[in-house]
Automatic annotation (TrEMBL):
Boundaries of every HTH cro/C1-type domain copy: 7-61
Xref: Pfam families: HTH_3
The keyword Transmembrane helix belongs to this UniProt entry's keyword annotation: no
Superkingdom as given in the UniProt entry: Bacteria
Protein name as annotated: Putative HTH-type transcriptional regulator
Keywords: DNA-binding
SUPFAM superfamilies with a match to the protein in the record: lambda repressor-like DNA-binding domains
MF (Gene Ontology): DNA binding
Cross-referenced SMART domains: HTH_XRE (SM00530)
Entry-linked InterPro entries: Cro/C1-type_HTH, Lambda_DNA-bd_dom_sf
Organism this protein belongs to: Schleiferilactobacillus shenzhenensis LY-73
Length: 66
């Protein structure tokens, strides 16, 4: 099992750059890039911060894939 994220889709829908999203949640652009490529699974705190910044429920932004 692994986690699928919809960060890139949601970020683009809101017209945000990776840099803008990174600044909103207090991480580097590199972290956002790694996350969007599926190379990084965020901590629970970061997942909540991302969901808040992207104005979506955490369960919509991150889903468990079997």
């Amino acid at each position: 099992m692994h986690i699928i994220n919809h960060v890139a889709d949601r970020r683009k829908a809101l017209g945000l750059t990776q840099e803008e999203l990174a600044a909103r949640v207090g991480v580097t652009r590199r972290t956002i890039i790694s996350l969007e490529k599926g190379h990084y699974t965020p901590s629970l705190m970061l997942a909540f911060l991302l969901a808040d910044a992207l104005k979506v429920d955490i369960t919509v932004l991150f889903q468990l894939w079997r």
